[in-house]
Amino acid sequence: MKDYLKQLENTAYEEPKKVFTLYLNTDPRDPEQQADEWKIRLKNALKDLANKTQDSDSHEEKNQAKEIREKVENEIYGKENELKRSIILFATSDEDLWFSEALNIPVTTEYHWDNKPHTEQLQNLLSDYPHSGVLVIQQDRAQLIETEIGMVLNTDYYKLDLNTDNWREHQGPQGSDWTQGGAKKDEYQERVEAHQQRWFKSLAETIQKKAKQQGWDELQLVGENDEIKHLKDYFDRKINKMVPRNLLDENPSKIVADVFEEE
Fold it and tell me: For the chain, which terminus, N or C, has the lower number of CB atoms within 10 Å?
């Protein structure tokens, strides 16, 4: 996203070509969003765009505004079932520029009609929700979520093989060996004292290698308080946040939202 932000910052068109920028708050938890308030704000934004351009001397600009209003309306209402807390959109009428993403983080509603995209709020979101890895651990199971501006970019699952003491990558949160809660509690507890150092060292090495490859700015640990405190000691890099909660079986998008909202 950083590279795309730089591309946006370097984007500017000659008159009369325009860019429509929209940050729309659709957060159902926001007290101001009762009764789909976002639909009213979207309608007002598009109506304001029509009013602003109706007196334009440029026939081309009027046509662009008309096309943008139709396309933006279709785009957002077409994604209505996917909307979480916000949506960001940068668009030209010919779709030479078109970026639309529903996010699980809050934004402040604003819109612009200009010869360039307005990226200030996106810059702030990238600062607040940087390119990160979120490692969620619970005994012999772990989930690694790659995220940026609240989006889940990738999710890897790991399970500790008690027969080999190695972490193996799991295809996903399916299968009886995952959903049954991993190792039997007694078996796990019996071996944890003797093997925890080796387990945590191995897991930390795997995660740090991935963090370097992907260029993550931050790394967060989530799990039982004692468990993540011990795990932290095996990382050479900074751990930016520790979240002492059992979230392993939650949806990755919810985990990301909870982690970044945690004070």
Answer: C
Q: Which residue type does 33 have?
A: Q
Q: Is 128 helix (H, G, I), strand (E, B) or coil?
A: helix
pLDDT at 180 > cutoff 70: no
- Per residue, the 3-state secondary structure of 15-80, as one string, reads CCCCEEEEEEECCCCCHHHCCCHHHHHHHHHHHHHHHHHHCCCCHHHHHHHHHHHHHHHHHHHHCH
Give 108: exposed, middle or buried? Use CB within 10 Å, 0-12, 13-18, 19+. Answer: exposed
- How deeply is 179 buried, as exposed, middle or buried, from its count of CB atoms within 10 A (0-12, 13-18, 19+)? exposed
Do the strands 132-138 and 218-222 form a parallel or antiparallel pair, or are they unpaired? parallel
User: Which pTM was predicted?
Assistant: 0.84
- Radius of gyration for the chain, computed over Cα atoms and rounded to the nearest angstrom: 23
